[in-house]
């Protein structure tokens, strides 16, 4: 049984969520997922990304350990918002990849920030994480905030014919670490 905690950032009014399970402030590194909002994948079962399956698997892994945390950050579409992500999907349907589509809309490839993770984790006395992610830039961003990421745990799920190109672009252009793509697992 997870506990849900809601946070609000006063400057933006954005509401974020943290799901927790077990005793988190005993000093042992916490199995954690820092997940960015994806309404289409997380809520509407879209198969063109890996978000929904990653969310489900992360929660299953935390449940299996009986201890962990999931930070659900409301930065849809790598920070460009839902409408712009749908515009980006349209451009991708016309041949652009996920990075080119962002650029054609006038955005950088990834606008996300992870600053708010620090006060959310501090609230529970969590200092060290075993982070479930394929994204080394996420690990770096958390470390720069002073969060001790003791381990990166791969979260490679839901590769299918609809998201093959998307996952490949993430490996080649965004540095994600996937087995079986250009960039091998370290
Ligand atoms: N702009 C844009 N955002 C996308 C696209 N596909 C998924 N997203 C968003 O990307 C975010 C998820 O990012 P990912 O790169 O899949 O994953 P990550 O969180 O950086 O890395 P992992 O921890 O390995 O999952 C969510 O906010 C999605 O809404 C896309 O084609 N364009
Ligand atoms: Zn997604």
Automatic annotation (TrEMBL):
User: What UniProt keywords are attached to this protein's entry?
Assistant: GTP-binding, Hydrolase, Metal-binding, Nucleotide-binding, Riboflavin biosynthesis, Zinc
Q: What class of enzyme is it?
A: hydrolase
Domain GTP cyclohydrolase II: residue ranges: 2-154
Identify the metabolic or biological route this protein is part of: Cofactor biosynthesis; riboflavin biosynthesis; 5-amino-6-(D-ribitylamino)uracil from GTP: step 1/4
- Residues binding GTP: 33-37, 54, 76-78, 98, 133, 138
Residue ranges of the TM segments = none
Q: Which cofactor does it need?
A: Zn(2+)
Q: What GO molecular functions are on record for this protein?
A: GTP binding; GTP cyclohydrolase II activity; zinc ion binding
Record-linked Gene3D superfamilies? GTP cyclohydrolase II
List the active-site residues. 110 (proton acceptor), 112 (nucleophile)
The cofactor binding remark recorded in the entry reads: Binds 1 zinc ion per subunit.
Catalytic activity, as annotated: GTP + 4 H2O = 2,5-diamino-6-hydroxy-4-(5-phosphoribosylamino)-pyrimidine + formate + 2 phosphate + 3 H(+)
Binding locations of Zn(2+):
38, 49, 51
Q: State the source organism's domain of life.
A: Bacteria
- Give the record's GO CC terms: cytosol
Q: Name one Pfam family in it.
A: GTP_cyclohydro2
> In its UniProt record, which GO terms are filed under biological process?
riboflavin biosynthetic process
Q: What is its EC number?
A: 3.5.4.25
What function does this protein fulfil?
Answer: Catalyzes the conversion of GTP to 2,5-diamino-6-ribosylamino-4(3H)-pyrimidinone 5'-phosphate (DARP), formate and pyrophosphate.
What protein family is recorded? Answer: Belongs to the GTP cyclohydrolase II family.
- What's the name of the protein? GTP cyclohydrolase-2
Give me the gene this protein comes from.
ribA
